[in-house]
Amino acid sequence: xxxxxxxxxxxxxxxxxxxxxxxxxxxxxxxxxxxxxxxxxxxxxxxxxxxxxxxxxxxxxxxxxxxxxxxxxxxxxxxxxxxxxxxxxxxxxxxxxxxxxxxxxxxxxxxxxxxxxxxxxxxxxxxxxxxxxxxxxxxxxxxxxxxxxxxxxxxxxxxxxxxxxxxxxxxxxx
Length: 174
What we know:
The protein is an alpha+beta fold. It contains four helices and seven strands, in the order E-H-H-E-E-E-H-E-H-E-E.
């Protein structure tokens, strides 16, 4: 039996689906946007965006989850959001991650999508610690984590170029 492929439930404004190579134009535009990627070492190239999609497809196959495409119910691309295994101070943790295209930021989409991911974690993985690993200067991302009910639980000092803020919350079974 293979790994169960998971998707968060649709929300009022959003639906989730797995990334495919057909998403390269939209993902490359978002991941290549200097404002969207302001808290990364650099915006991603088109080739790096293709690798991003391939990495998510590998995660769907291996774990049943990753970052998924988030789009409006009429199919308008909003960004990506999902759950991935990460490392904090060399300890494996489940993280909720999110990126929203520039013109859709500050409209509650990241919080709405991330909340659907918390609900998925409650149904499939809880009880469990869920984290958000954030650049210390990224107030908007920290605001999303706080909207979910997360608090500052640690600082990740194992990353090569920055001490990252670790937000977290215990998720109880649904």
